[in-house]
């Protein structure tokens, strides 16, 4: 299958929302409420009207509470799963390492038992490695099994699907409670495993086994990405004491080892993120991209720091004051995290704001803006669009982006529309109830029908669901004549929208794209300028099929 066909193969799974029709229904509903309750002065009537006005805010409040609780549970479970790969708390198996060693230093915590002490009652690096690999693989495999078997829509980050929904499409089952449950459980397992897993099925075991076997030996890849990011962004004291901070990053004697470890971690994290983000497991891209950039930035900062210590007289360090710290590796890690996130997502202003919120330091804003700008320019030179846009094309998700405007320049809508000869239309009069039901049975994939008169002049547009509901409830005989416009017979004219969004065949195609974006109609009908004869019909999917095939 060609790339163009792959990018449109799933279009039939997405239903289109008619924003104009929905807005009209909401206006009619509100008018009905006010006409029913507005005249009455009873207290109960005003209470109901106040409730109807506030119900949207109540829903937002409840959603915020539920999502906050769900996110907190995911964070707690994820941290416990991540720590459980390395050991267990002897005072309570449900406690992670942080809470198990709450009252004493983690390094000397007697309550936290590593797996070698639990399984063989002794110190064994091989047993610790084996337990780390086995538990991480089990988590990744269980995650892939749950998503593949019970909730395929929970796979991935969901950003592309959310963009499609905001763009006017409906994905059946994507917003359901079962998908939410599997997404939450799968996300905790995927993040807790800390692995870059392969495809579903047996490859999950092979990919996770290989990855964990390699990453265990590197402290920067063994740590949870959120935890790693917090350590990489920590500054070292002016005079290092003790073990030199986490993993010895602040000990100048370990500089060479730290540089090599960070370089290996950057490469492995990058490869692992590329593989894992395309798997059928719930996963995100923001923290992994920031962890990759922070690892690379910390490596460059450590290299620059060592160069300054070795060659303090270089012209490159002419602005550095003597006997004072000049190079701060944590700052390089911070800027690297910002650059990596921008390069992956192609987001600019939001990245600067997010990084400012992380530090609260105004003096970092200008350097952050510079690295974000450079990352964006280089990223755009390599590939257009961020990772979510690329996944939208890869997964065949319909979404009107900015590229459609360039493909439709100087093109009339007649070159993109489906011509009237290919459409199923309803006559305004003369169709029997039997013929109407037969037409409905043979048009399951059609969302609506143009209504035309005997000369194919456009009368209006009617939604299929409304016609099907009316046809199933009619008590008339099968030979009864159904009317959608003219008087006489069984009249269904009240279902017809007599003024659908209509353009002329010579209308610019990019103008139609703007109508879809800003007004959100389900379809746009094309009628001739002279006599109003139906010339064709256009949907968002028709535009995307045309642009993605050219």
UniProtKB/TrEMBL annotation:
The keyword Cell inner membrane does not apply. GO terms for biological process: intracellular copper ion homeostasis; intracellular iron ion homeostasis. The keyword Ribonucleoprotein does not apply. Residues 417-477, 496-550 form the CBS domain. GO terms for molecular function: voltage-gated chloride channel activity. The chain crosses the membrane at residues 57-77, 129-150, 162-181, 258-278, 332-356, 362-383. It is found in: Membrane. This is Chloride channel protein. The lineage of its organism: Eukaryota, Fungi, Fungi incertae sedis, Zoopagomycota, Kickxellomycotina.
């Amino acid at each position: 299958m060609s790339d163009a066909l792959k990018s449109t193969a799933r279009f039939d799974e997405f239903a289109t929302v008619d924003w104009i029709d929905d807005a009209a229904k909401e206006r009619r509903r509100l008018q009905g409420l006010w006409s029913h309750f507005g005249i009455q002065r009873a207290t109960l009537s005003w209470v109901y009207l106040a409730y109807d006005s506030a119900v949207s805010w109540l829903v937002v409040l409840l959603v915020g509470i539920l999502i906050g609780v769900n996110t907190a549970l995911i964070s707690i479970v994820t941290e416990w799963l991540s720590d459980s790969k390395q050991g267990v708390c002897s005072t309570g198996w449900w406690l992670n390492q942080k809470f198990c060693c709450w009252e004493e230093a983690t390094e000397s915590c007697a309550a936290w038992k590593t797996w070698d002490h639990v399984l063989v009652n002794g110190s064994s690096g091989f047993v610790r490695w084996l337990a780390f690999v086995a538990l991480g693989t089990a988590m990744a495999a269980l995650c892939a099994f749950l998503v593949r078997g019970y909730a395929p829509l929970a796979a991935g980050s969901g950003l592309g699907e959310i963009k499609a929904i905001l763009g006017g499409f409906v994905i059946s089952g994507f917003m359901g409670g079962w998908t939410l449950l599997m997404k939450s459980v799968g996300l905790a397992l995927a993040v807790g495993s800390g692995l870059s897993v392969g495809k579903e099925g047996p490859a999950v075991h092979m990919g996770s086994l290989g990855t964990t076997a390699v990453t265990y030996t590197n402290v920067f890849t063994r740590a949870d990405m959120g935890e790693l990011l917090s350590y990489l962004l920590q500054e070292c004291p002016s005079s290092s004491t003790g073990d030199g901070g986490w993993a010895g990053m602040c000990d100048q004697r370990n500089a060479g080892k730290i540089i090599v470890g960070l370089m290996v971690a950057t490469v492995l994290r990058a490869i692992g993120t590329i593989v894992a983000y395309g798997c059928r497991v719930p996963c995100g891209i923001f923290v992994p991209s920031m962890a990759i950039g922070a690892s690379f930035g910390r490596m460059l900062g450590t290299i620059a720091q060592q160069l300054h210590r070795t060659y303090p007289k270089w012209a490159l360090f002419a602005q550095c004051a003597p006997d004072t710290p000049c190079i701060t590796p944590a700052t390089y890690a911070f800027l690297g995290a910002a650059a990596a996130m921008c390069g992956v997502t192609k987001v600019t202003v939001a990245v600067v704001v997010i990084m400012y919120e992380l530090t609260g330091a105004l003096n970092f804003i200008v350097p952050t803006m510079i690295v974000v700008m450079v990352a964006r320019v280089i990223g755009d030179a390599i590939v257009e669009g961020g990772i979510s846009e690329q996944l939208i094309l890869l997964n065949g998700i319909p979404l009107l982006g900015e590229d459609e405007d360039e493909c439709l320049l100087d093109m009339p809508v007649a070159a993109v529309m489906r011509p009237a000869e290919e459409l199923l239309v309803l006559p305004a009069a003369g169709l029997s109830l039997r013929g109407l039901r037969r037409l409905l049975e043979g048009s399951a994939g059609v969302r609506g029908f143009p209504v035309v008169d005997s000369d194919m002049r456009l009368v209006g547009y009617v939604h299929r669901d409304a016609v099907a509901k009316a046809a199933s409830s009619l008590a008339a005989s099968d030979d009864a004549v159904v009317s959608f416009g003219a008087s006489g017979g069984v009249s269904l004219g009240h279902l017809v929208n007599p003024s659908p969004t209509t353009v002329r065949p010579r209308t610019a195609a990019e103008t139609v794209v703007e109508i879809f974006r800003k007004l959100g109609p389900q379809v746009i009908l094309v009628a001739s300028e002279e006599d109003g004869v139906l010339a064709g019909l256009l949907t968002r999917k028709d535009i995307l099929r045309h642009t993605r095939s050219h």
